[in-house]
Design a protein that fits this description.
With 352 residues, the protein is of the alpha/beta class. The protein has two domains: 9-55, no CATH class; 60-328, Alpha-Beta Barrel (TIM Barrel). Helices cover 35% and strands 18% of the residues. Strand 3 and strand 4 form a beta hairpin. The structure holds S-adenosyl-L-homocysteine.
Amino acid sequence: MTSLYDPTREEISAILEGEPSYRLNQLWSGLYTHFKKPADISNLPAALRKKIDAELPESLIEVQRSTSEDGDTVKFLWHLVEGNHPIETVLMYYDDRATVCVSTQAGCAMACGFCATGQAGFNRHLSIGEIVEQVIRSAREAATKDRRIDNIVFMGMGEPLANEPNVWGAVERIHADIGISARHLTISTVGIVPGIRALTQRPLPVNLAVSLHAARDTLRDELVPINTRYPIQMLMDTCRDYLFEKRRRVTFEWALIDSVNDTDRDAHELAELCLQLSPPAHVNLIPLNPTPGWPTVGSSPGRVAAFQRLLRDLGVNATTRQNRGTEIAAACGQLAAGQPVTIEMKKTRQPR
Ligand code: SAH
């Protein structure tokens, strides 16, 4: 099925047959510049708006919207019209920018034990339109607060590089039509080597983040099971090629788990990997967020700070990710898309 944000500009023109050619610009900029629903694109004739609405509906039904106490983090729970699967999107406001964290799959097949999405399993890939729509709907919400979207991170539910063609389609749409430049787009991967290679061949230099979490294979095999297929050194070589091709710094994400991967030994091993790349990889430390299916807790704030200091002493640039939205389960690794879908929920569908 095709939804409103799946067709390209050329493809969508089919629905405008018999209309003057300027209608295409009106529709396209209504959707991608002004983030309007077709019904609200007021320079289009009413009958045409109705036709578009009927033939190309949006693909996300808003089921729930949770806002953090300070109002800076908004989590959307959607159901996909196609198949009714739940997915989530997180909109984060900062003083100087706003970032949207989008999902790329309904669920995830990577089975990282400490991640709530991984604990829940995989439903299906998202289409280009389903990914792009998360950005549009977030931008629509941000506009009500006079805010615009500056950054997109592909760090929501799912493994982006297991769905690389659609993720790339979304990147191009977001870049060309919404107008967010490649250096404001970040794809995070568990380390799917063929996916990184595919990305290396793509034309835009998006930022690459790799969820490393362990710097020796024995430990990483346990934490990130796909490591048994794409072990660390193969991953490093692939990152080096990406860096060489794109001239974009690579980031390693590291969820700090108490006594599991937060020792001095881990910091030394991690620093060695970072320094294999030139410029060295940047480390983004994420104190582990609690999830229902994982017993181990996050490292203490003191340990996080010591780990970061040690990395810096070893010549590696490391930052600690500001923890956002834990109280609404919107933080890294907490996206599980709530409760099983019920018919009741469908009735709360937002008016278009
Ligand atoms: N599948 C991709 C995209 C998800 S990004 C990837 O793994 O990169 C989500 C980030 O949050 C990843 O770095 C993931 O490893 C991390 N994460 C998962 N569970 C977490 C948890 N419980 N606490 C903190 N970070 C977590």
